[in-house]
Request: fold
Amino acid sequence: MSIPRVILVDVIPPNTPLRIAKRRITELEALTNTYGGMAIVRIIQKRRTPDYQTYVGKGKLEEVALLAREQDVDIIILNNALKPKQVFEVEEYARKTPMPEGREREKKLIQVWDRLDLILHIFSKHAQTVEAKLQIRLAAIRHMGPRIFGMGSEMMQQAGGIGTRGGGETNIEMMRRHLSNQERQLKKQLAACAQTRRLHRERRTRVGLQTVSIVGYTNAGKSSLLNALTHKGAYVANELFATLDTRVGKVWLPGDPVGREALLSDTIGFIQDLPPELVDAFRSTLEETVQADLILHVIDVTDVFRAEKIQEVEQILTQLELTDHPKLYVFNKIDGVKRVPRLTLQKRYAAFHPVFVSTRTGEGLEELKRVMFERLQEA
Ligand SMILES: Nc1nc2c(ncn2[C@@H]2O[C@H](COP(=O)(O)OP(=O)(O)OP(=O)(O)O)[C@@H](O)[C@H]2O)c(=O)[nH]1
Ligand SMILES: [Mg+2]
Reply:
């Protein structure tokens, strides 16, 4: 299959600082690459409020659609959460835009995705376990459902003029029923997965194992940390959302006099503007984190957006009602910077006992285990 050619569009408020604007578009491009697409053009559109019909606004849309035709683009990705009607409008607009003269025969269908569409496509590429697959299907149904209905009412309005209104309605009703049936089935299956998970957790508690959960921004090195501490062989990649499911491994804590082990679990990474549909669909996986005795928040120390990302992860933890859990900040990838600003970070995040490690060289891991042990004793 050939590599999809993509136009990236981000609509931001006019007062957005350049640094933030750059971060958003760079991250969108990283997501696009993870999906397997190639960004041909990046467009940042400043708008006070999104256009209620086309999101980007008619004038900009015209420009984007022409460019898409000229550049032989397959997908237009908007880095925002669009309403179903807006996606439909942009799609329609792209469809109606002709190819440049002489190239009419190359005309193809241009897809329009919003941010969640892109994330869902990455997720379906990376899903390994049954549970992850179910979770993605649930998120997709929740996301696509309104879009199908939205499109439906759009089509109904158009069809209404030629007297097929009744037919349109029946189809939409059928679709709606079909989707809500599917949603119910998926929820049932997911509940069964959650139940199995709960039983496992209870068994662990009975044998006195404490649990430690790894969280952090996507690509921070969470799976690498799990592997470095447990030799578990979790999938590590320079991709966003490489991990979608919880993997659990045992870690032996050297300070413990009776040589007890703790259970360490890795899970899905966080990202800014994580769509609520996703948090919801992944709630049972994240439940592992909710139940943990200790949380390790892994941070990529080489990341220039480190401080922002820490905040964004904390926001999601708050959404999951995890603010009061004992927590350690693990600054990873210290091999990747000339000088680690240890003192500054230690001072700023003193409440979270900052530890500095490199999962690549192994530096700091023993110290981390020691601090984990201490914190678990207090837990
Ligand atoms: N230089 C350096 N790179 C590291 C280190 N730890 C992890 N990496 C790299 O960072 C990238 C992401 O690592 P992962 O362990 O997959 O990160 P993750 O947090 O599990 O990412 P997701 O599952 O995608 O959210 C990979 O390319 C790793 O090789 C480290 O200590 N130093
Ligand atoms: Mg991972």
